[in-house]
Amino acid sequence: MQLRKKNHTSELIFTITLFSIFLISSVLLVLFGANIYQKISAESSVNETMRTSLSYIQEKVRQCDHESSVQVENHNGIDTLALHTSYGTDNYVTYIYYYDGSLKELFTKSSLDFNPSAGNSVTDISAFSISKDSSLIQIVLTDTNNQTHELLIHASSEMQ
Amino acid sequence: MKRQSYNIRHSSMFLIELIIAILFLSLCSAICIRLFVNARLAENNSYNITQAVTVAQNIAEVFEARVSEASQSSIDDNFLPEYTIYYDNNFLKCDKENAVFSADICISCSEYLISADIIIAKASDTVNSNSIYSLHVDHAVSTLGGL
Lengths: 160, 147
Known about the structure:
heterodimer; A: 160 residues; five-stranded antiparallel sheet; rod-shaped; B: 147 residues; four-stranded antiparallel sheet; 4 strands; 48% helix
């Protein structure tokens, strides 16, 4: 009787252990899946955002690639990519720059002062640098994952 | 006595049921983990292609800029027919020893056309096998100078 009772207890412990393993494995599998999904989703989102931002800058430069209209200018210590255009008799400028943790764009009249806080946010980034060597514009963006992306644009109007 | 026998049988049935459930869970886990790994690999592959496109476009822009500059005066002897640039895991330039990816640039010219073939591949691969991305650039020039 005693042996049977002992046997029954060990069987119960074994069953409970097995059931615990089942539960822990299920939870771990769900956590693992959620973690991987989150990671993939976050990385592909950053990847897509950066690609879009770089393409956006590239297209903007292409769009304004007229004689001396693509300039690298420094306003109040902020490096900006200044794209000059004129509509009728008025001259306008589009500034692309880094301010307050994001890449910003500001479209304004050339005669007005540069106000960095007035720009629209394009995307969140952690660093931005821009330089121009002859006809080649170099833009280096650092995304929120601290990954650096480099973009080189040849301004063909500078060769004319 | 009968009741005890019924309990033992019932307990055994539950145990068998649990073991079958665990086996089923293991099978599902194996399939799920395989899917997760595949998703991760696909994501990595997508990242590599995106970076390779950007790198190839950057090289094409530099090529355009240099050829435009050269065609205005004369193309100097620094224009080599073949270049290789090495990149690390994050597509940052590095030396050959630490390279994970490479960009092979092959420059050729005809009478009024100067072309570049840009091939981004894994550094261990040969140029034509398993390339991640390739780009062909043509630039029309009026005078090719000494090239």
